[in-house]
């Protein structure tokens, strides 16, 4: 149901992949006497994604092996009755299919077979009942194997394949062998193998994939991504029938062929030999055929090359395999190169190819652009700032690939050029001459230049291959080919099949259609039409036009008709497509599930109770809170001393079962498009909604605390303000259909500020983002939306709250820090964190290490030291303090009856079920060292206490960072506010970890930072009720406190590879991507002096600059806005309080930011600027007078080593300081 999501590259069903099932090495000339480097080979790790492995097979014995390579970061998590060794160093199990198989142990035989072909030990006298007797050995017998079991009896799920790639990439494998595949080719962004191997390639890992067993039809190859090697199957000189797989018609696929028929290799003794139930035979080795068998042959060879060239890129190894392949006899195969690609792999020659065709990540991105992928999709795929030119003229044929293929129209003459670049990996001072082997009269091939001279190793040279022809006949000559050979006299096999011309009418195999899934989609129709209009009638009518079977009333989930136009409906994919193409429809997208983004804070910001407030005006301000509901009986929401609701209030109290509003909580609505039957009231059963509402506008409550921790006064930013509660979240999430419904109601109800501590897991297009859509229409009605930035940090580009018409808030610390202490038996005292309100009465308790408490035959040492519950021996743990090397060790300790626990600190405190302290890694090692030094280790954990943190504010590690992946010219987050260890109201329904209920709780997250800013926005509104949403936003941003960049740098260091070297203070400007304009200042925000106002027209112009057309813009805006045909503007020109631009690396730049400010301070005032601005002085005679200026930024070029530069524009009249960050950035090393 999520197929339309723009910010997710693709959503596709988790399909079932199929398994595609040793004289072979000798046949290839790869004898046992060939030159090897066993020590280096032993450091190579081959990842095998398959049905598992039988570790007891002699092929996987670890006799003679040393410890695993130091680079190995994986685990042995093989499940029941599975143990790794020094040969099989890693194992992981994936089972989204919920198969009953609970071990990496191979019950099929396929995985053991493929793993032993790639890297099995040499086994003498192996045979299948005497057949094919001889030595069974892998391509790299000294290499290590990491096994990722994704396949079960019914197949191999996409979800598991992607999970395996995800782990293998981070585990440290060098080569990935995956003998699985689809029955037909899919789009790259819907192919789990293509997606996984792309990210592997980006990390320097080559993926080898079986081409598939769908032959002999053309277009039957399912492995099509150019960043992995696709392998066909062929015979050896031991006579068996030939089995080949044919090409796909876009790039030459398969790439190469290798032995795949009648291959003897290891097997699983529990795997069936035949489909006959009566066949009970068990074997250690068997003979199988298929591209599954050819794939690990090439994986082994790739690993062999890696031992000689450990620094070669995946594409260099791929090129070496392809360009040194044996030419194959095209007359033996009806489809020639479509069957065998570049030829038969040659392991010996592949080590020394002479020249290689290298393709980098950027080259593949460019290819995707030429295929029609847009910039947003490409950036999400690549994780960087790659962009696609608006008029991309390239073609996938231009990819620097070792083979060259193109499709031409039947019977029409053609001229095709293939630009290529080769890198010299042979000798310096070498000259290569081109020879074209062409026996086909239908084409002519030229190479320019035809001689390449290299002075140095790694030197690059470019050339162009030109192919001309008079036309190919779709029946008689549908395919024409030739080959290009570069030779220096030594390397004469640098060969690529250079031209495969496919006639357009050649028979194709259609892509299999996806399964039909009925889901809830949102149909966004823009603004409400003016004049008399019946939205419900329109919505039902639109549905009637597209539905195929169900009635419109049954399909309709909700109409949006109060503040904007649209509806949610249950649709099939086919119905969704029909709707998306109807005139007047802005977008159709799935109703996604958004996530919650989980008091000294006000005093820390200088916003004390003594701060000037206007209670009477504040009481007229209404904050709409979109969340999990509210607990109205909390003291924070008492209506004592409140008068009746403001006259402007037009909402209702429709809170459902057992819910009553009051004069503080004046409105309540519940939304439930998920039909969640366990929650039929606005009453908060989660606690999150009560917490956020009380931060924004809770009453003053004395002596609030969490079991005595952080005791003091709990209060909101505007205690006299009213609350309107829109419950959009239930236990399983917050549907976008309900969020849009809440925006529709809130805008019409009369709220002034909207606080929404929710967010998506990834960026989507503006017209598909429910928060961006709702906030746009709220802005048009004068309502400011404040949104949490997200908890996806510390990675860059992790913020998905990107619309410029709302405020995106990051989370930072306050000057109160809650700590805990542990005292060891030797007197050592260590500080850590947790919300530990237990006391141990000053007594020492025995200390025990999780690793030493493992239940017999239950778990391995790794899981035991993590303190996984089922792994612990309760009798050994009971009454002791358990030392755990995971962040969740307290859960296992509690399960086992421990007296307390010491666990790993991940930067955020939590409520614990027993005395617990979380320590940093180095302190955890001190405890472990003490434990190992004595036979009577003991410790005591003290109760948590609050101390002053002078380093605050520092942005939280989890807080999402910029830049803005959707609109690079708009800085996000906008601002930061307290979001760590915030005490606020809670619901008594949810139980804490210790099973107790509380009225007040301590939580952390951007969810907590967001309502702080919402409360301050309401405070500003109480002083300036006529101010626009953009004026309030500008006041918040331009008066923010500058942050200590160096203090905030640590929180994003892990997101940058530049942290490998010490960073100078001047380079610490990356911090601006985490905190935006700075830390919010409530007192100064009410008197900013100048504001940057942005109108609805400005935003529609920005949409035009982003490429939205007039029709779309008018539907969104509801007016007659139009986009110029040749719009030359840029989103950077939006009158925004910050200024941001992306520039290309190493290129001089000059960027201008036009801006206009409005005087909201004194009349007859003059402001002076402190950076290069034209003009640099602004003189105002009147209030509300506007003045324009241009900020000019120039530079000599940005580098990846220093990818961000920032400055601050400050306008000052001596009283007011108006600050705006200016940010220039280029590509990041992430």
UniProtKB/TrEMBL annotation:
PROSITE patterns for the chain: SUBTILASE (PS51892), SUBTILASE_SER (PS00138)
Q: Which Pfam family, just one, is annotated for this protein?
A: fn3_6
This chain's protein is named Uncharacterized protein
Question: Keywords, A to Z?
Answer: Hydrolase, Protease, Serine protease, Signal
Name the source organism. Answer: Vitis rotundifolia
Family label: Belongs to the peptidase S8 family.
Inhibitor I9 domain sequence ranges: 520-597
Which part of the chain is the Subtilisin-like protease fibronectin type-III domain?
398-492, 1133-1224
GO annotations under biological process? proteolysis
Domain (Peptidase S8/S53) ranges:
42-339, 619-1042
Q: Which GO terms describe its molecular function?
A: serine-type endopeptidase activity
Q: Which PANTHER family does this one have? A: PROPROTEIN CONVERTASE SUBTILISIN/KEXIN (PTHR10795)
């Amino acid at each position: 149901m999520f197929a339309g999501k723009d910010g997710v590259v693709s959503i596709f069903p988790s399909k079932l992949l199929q398994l595609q099932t040793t004289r072979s090495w000798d046949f290839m000339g790869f004898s046992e006497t060939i030159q090897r480097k066993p020590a280096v080979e032993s450091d190579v790790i081959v990842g095998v994604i398959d049905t598992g492995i039988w570790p007891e097979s002699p092929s996987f014995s670890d006799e003679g092996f040393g410890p695993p390579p130091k680079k190995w970061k994986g685990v042995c998590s093989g499940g029941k009755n599975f143990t790794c060794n020094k040969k099989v160093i890693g194992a992981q199990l994936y089972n989204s299919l919920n198969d009953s198989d609970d071990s990496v142990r191979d019950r099929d035989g396929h995985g053991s077979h493929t793993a032993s072909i790639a890297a099995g030990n040499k086994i003498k006298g192996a045979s299948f009942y005497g057949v094919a007797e001889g030595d069974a050995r892998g391509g790299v017998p000294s290499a290590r194997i990491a096994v990722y079991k994704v396949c079960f009896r019914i197949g191999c799920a996409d979800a598991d394949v992607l999970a395996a790639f995800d782990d293998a990439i981070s585990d440290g494998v060098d080569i990935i062998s995956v003998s699985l595949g689809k029955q037909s080719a899919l789009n790259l962004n819907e192919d789990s193998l293509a997606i996984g191997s792309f990210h592997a390639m980006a990390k320097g890992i080559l993926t080898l994939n079986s081409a598939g067993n769908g032959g002999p039809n053309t277009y039957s190859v399912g492995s099509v991504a150019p960043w992995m090697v696709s392998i066909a199957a062929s015979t050896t000189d031991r006579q068996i029938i030939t089995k080949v797989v044919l090409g796909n018609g876009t790039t030459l696929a398969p790439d190469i062929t290798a032995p795949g028929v009648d291959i003897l290799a290891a097997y699983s003794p529990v795997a069936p030999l035949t489909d006959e139930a009566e066949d009970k035979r068990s074997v250690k080795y068997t003979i199988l055929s298929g591209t599954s068998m050819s794939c690990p042959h090439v994986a082994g060879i790739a690993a062999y090359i890696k031992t000689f060239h450990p620094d070669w890129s995946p594409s260099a190894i791929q090129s070496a395999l392809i360009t040194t392949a044996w030419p194959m006899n095209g007359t033996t195969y009806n489809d020639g190169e479509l069957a065998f690609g570049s030829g038969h792999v040659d392991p010996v020659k592949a080590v020394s190819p002479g020249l290689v065709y290298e393709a980098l990540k950027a080259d593949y991105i460019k290819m995707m652009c030429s295929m029609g992928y847009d910039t947003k999709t490409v950036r999400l795929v690549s994780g960087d700032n790659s962009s696609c030119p608006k008029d991309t003229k390239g073609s996938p044929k231009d990819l620097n690939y070792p083979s060259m293929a193109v499709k031409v129209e039947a019977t029409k003459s053609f001229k095709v050029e293939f630009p290529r670049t080769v890198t010299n990996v042979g000798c310096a001072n070498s000259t290569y001459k081109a020879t074209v082997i062409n026996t086909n009269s239908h084409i002519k091939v030229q190479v320019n230049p035809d001689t390449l001279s290299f002075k140095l190793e790694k030197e690059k040279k470019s050339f162009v291959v030109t192919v001309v022809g008079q036309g190919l006949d779709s029946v008689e000559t549908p395919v024409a080919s030739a080959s290009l050979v570069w030779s220096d006299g030594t390397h004469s096999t640098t060969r690529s099949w250079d031209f495969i011309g496919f006639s357009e009418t050649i028979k194709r195999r259609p892509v299999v259609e996806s399964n039909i899934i009925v889901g809830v989609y949102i149909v966004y129709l823009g603004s409400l039409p003016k004049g008399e209009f019946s939205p419900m009638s329109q919505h039902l009518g639109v549905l009637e036009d597209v539905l195929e079977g169900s009635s419109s009333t049954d399909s309709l989930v909700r109409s949006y008709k109060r503040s904007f136009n649209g509806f949610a409906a249950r649709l099939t994919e086919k119905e969704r497509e029909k709707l998306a193409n109807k005139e007047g429809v802005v977008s159709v997208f799935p109703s996604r599930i958004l996530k919650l983004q989980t008091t000294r804070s006000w005093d820390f910001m200088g916003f004390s109770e003594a701060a000037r407030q206007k209670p009477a005006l504040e009481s007229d301000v209404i904050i709409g809170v979109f969340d999990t509901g509210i607990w109205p009986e909390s003291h924070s929401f008492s209506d004592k001393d409140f008068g009746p609701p403001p006259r402007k209030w037009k909402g209702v109290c429709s809170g459902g079962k057992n819910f009553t509003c009051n004069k503080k909580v004046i409105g309540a609505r519940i939304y439930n498009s998920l039909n969640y039957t366990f929650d039929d009231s606005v009453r908060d059963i989660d606690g999150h909604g009560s917490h956020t509402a009380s931060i924004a506008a809770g009453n003053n409550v004395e002596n609030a605390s969490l079991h005595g921790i952080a005791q003091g006064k709990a209060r909101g930013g505007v205690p006299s303000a009213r609350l309107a509660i829109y419950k959009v979240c239930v236990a399983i999430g917050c549907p976008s259909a309900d969020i849009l419904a809440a925006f529709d109601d809130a805008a019409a109800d009369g709220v002034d500020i909207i606080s929404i501590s929710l967010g998506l897991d990834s960026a989507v297009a503006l017209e598909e983002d429910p928060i961006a859509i709702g906030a746009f229409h709220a802005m048009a009605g004068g309502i400011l939306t404040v949104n949490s930035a997200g908890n996806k940090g510390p990675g860059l580009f992790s913020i998905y709250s990107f619309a410029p018409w709302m405020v995106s808030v990051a989370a930072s610390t306050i000057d109160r820090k809650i700590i805990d202490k542990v005292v060891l038996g030797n007197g050592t005292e260590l500080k850590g964190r947790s919300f530990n309100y237990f006391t141990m009465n000053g007594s020492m308790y025995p200390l025990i290490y999780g690793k030493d408490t493992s239940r017999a035959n239950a778990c391995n040492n790794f899981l035991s030291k993590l303190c996984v519950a089922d792994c612990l021996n309760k009798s050994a743990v009971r009454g002791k303090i358990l030392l755990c090397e995971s962040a969740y060790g307290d859960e296992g300790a509690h399960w086992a009856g421990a007296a307390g626990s010491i666990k790993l600190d991940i930067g955020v405190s939590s409520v614990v079920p027993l005395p617990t302290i979380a320590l940093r890694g180095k302190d955890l090692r001190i405890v472990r060292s003490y434990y190992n030094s004595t036979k009577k280790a003991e410790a005591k954990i003290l109760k948590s206490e609050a101390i002053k943190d002078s380093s605050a504010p520092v942005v939280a590690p989890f807080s999402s960072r910029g830049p803005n992946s959707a609109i690079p010219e708009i800085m996000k987050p906008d601002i930061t506010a307290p979001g760590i260890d915030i005490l606020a109201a809670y619901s008594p329904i949810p139980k804490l970890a210790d099973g107790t209920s509380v009225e007040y709780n301590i939580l952390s997250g951007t969810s907590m930072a967001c309502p702080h800013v919402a409360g301050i926005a309401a405070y500003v509104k109480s002083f300036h009720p006529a101010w626009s949403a953009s004026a309030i936003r500008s006041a918040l941003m331009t008066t923010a406190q500058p942050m200590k960049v160096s203090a905030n740098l640590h929180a994003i260091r892990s997101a940058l590879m530049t942290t490998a070297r010490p960073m100078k203070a001047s380079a610490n400007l990356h911090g601006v991507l985490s905190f935006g304009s700075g830390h919010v200042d409530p007192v100064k925000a009410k008197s900013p002096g100048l504001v940057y106002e942005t109108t609805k027209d400005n935003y529609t112009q920005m949409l035009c600059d982003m490429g939205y057309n007039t029709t779309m813009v008018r539907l969104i805006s509801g007016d007659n806005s139009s986009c110029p045909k040749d719009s030359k503007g840029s989103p950077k020109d939006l009158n925004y309080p910050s200024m941001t631009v992306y520039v290309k690396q190493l290129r001089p730049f000059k960027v201008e930011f036009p801006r206009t400010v409005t005087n909201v301070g004194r009349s007859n005032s003059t402001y002076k600027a402190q950076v290069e601005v034209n003009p640099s002085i602004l003189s105002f005679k009147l209030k509300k007078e506007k003045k324009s200026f241009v900020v000019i930024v120039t530079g000599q070029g940005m580098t990846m080593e220093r990818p961000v530069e920032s400055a601050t524009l400050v306008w000052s009249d001596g009283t007011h300081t108006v600050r705006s960050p200016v940010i220039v950035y280029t590509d990041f090393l992430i």
